[in-house]
Task: inverse folding
């Protein structure tokens, strides 16, 4: 019998993959946003509504993560944008190895922006570096204004919160001021952006934010 | 669910390290998990037991050590232990975004029959 000291970092491989992906994006001047939110928060719809304003669709690509089916990738495909579906099976998040494989399948030539739509989940996707430039939290009005308090790591890790389905505010107990207060409690400098995909309100600000991020990454 | 995928990552590392050490059997595992990872230790251990069935680590005793979240308070310029995931200084109430420990996922050690 022997005692073996290991100190083996279990997600070390993930860090190595993430670094490799970051290098590939840097070299090809591709901006990558990782969208994280609950199932049904409107991540795919947000992408569908933004695609028409993001220039030549061949410069875009979307990596979709779900436990099963290619429904989301099919929806993005119908917008004329290349997409690849990662079916994570039992996994509750996309890791850097998934992204590395997806990137090979989708190709990076002439891309400007890649979106990763993470598995619908507010917990573990926040914890994984997948080589992205920015994590974006997508939260919908019906989920409630207290969510930042319940899931602090996501709101600490992301660069922006997109609040979707704002047309539903009058029909719910969602309180804007309370929401902003809760976001600030967890992350004082985190910007919040309101978007309504039904009416298109706020899509312009979100597109501007993406373009500003692109310019900041590749001056 | 979260614990299950983390347990899968651990199982991969355990198999690899077991092979490297030439283990016939793995009798005991010590795992360190940072509290910021929001992992329920009992659930992780349960998932691991299940995944490790039919491997050299079947039936291994699993000890999970939780590592507290420590962060530097920018106001007090001190390292503080965080009480929860809010990263708020217990002394002055400032937000402490610089997390120094609590994100660990370590296969710390194992006891093997070689």
Result:
């Amino acid at each position: 019998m022997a005692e073996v000291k290991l100190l083996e970092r279990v997600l070390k491989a993930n860090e190595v993959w993430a670094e490799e992906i970051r290098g590939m994006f840097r070299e090809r001047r591709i901006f990558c946003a990782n969208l994280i939110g609950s199932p049904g928060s409107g991540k795919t719809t947000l992408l569908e509504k933004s695609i028409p304003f993001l220039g030549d669709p061949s410069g875009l690509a979307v990596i979709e993560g779900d436990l099963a089916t290619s429904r989301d990738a099919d929806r993005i495909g119908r917008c004329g944008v290349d997409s690849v579906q990662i079916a994570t099976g039992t996994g509750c998040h996309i890791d850097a190895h998934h992204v590395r494989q997806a990137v090979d399948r989708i190709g990076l030539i002439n891309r400007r922006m890649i979106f990763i739509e993470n598995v619908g989940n507010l917990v573990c996707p926040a914890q994984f570096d997948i080589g992205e430039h920015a994590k974006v939290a997508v939260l919908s009005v019906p989920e409630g204004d207290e969510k930042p308090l319940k899931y602090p790591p996501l709101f600490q890790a992301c660069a922006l919160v997109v609040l979707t389905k704002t047309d539903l505010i009058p029909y719910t107990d969602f309180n804007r001021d309370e929401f902003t207060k809760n976001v600030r409690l967890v992350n004082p400098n985190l910007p919040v952006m309101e978007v309504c995909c039904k009416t298109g309100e706020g899509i312009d600000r979100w597109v501007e934010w993406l373009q500003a991020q692109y310019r900041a990454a590749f001056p | 669910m979260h614990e299950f995928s983390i347990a899968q990552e651990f199982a991969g590392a355990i198999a690899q390290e077991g092979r490297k050490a030439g283990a016939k059997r793995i009798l005991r595992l010590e795992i360190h998990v940072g509290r910021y990872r929001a992992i329920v230790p009992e659930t992780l251990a349960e998932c691991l037991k299940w995944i490790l069935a039919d491997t050299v680590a079947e039936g291994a005793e699993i000890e999970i050590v939780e590592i507290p979240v420590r962060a530097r308070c920018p106001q007090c310029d001190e390292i503080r232990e965080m009480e929860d995931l809010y990263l708020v200084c217990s002394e002055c109430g400032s937000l402490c975004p610089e997390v120094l420990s609590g994100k660990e996922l370590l296969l710390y050690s194992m006891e093997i029959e070689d």
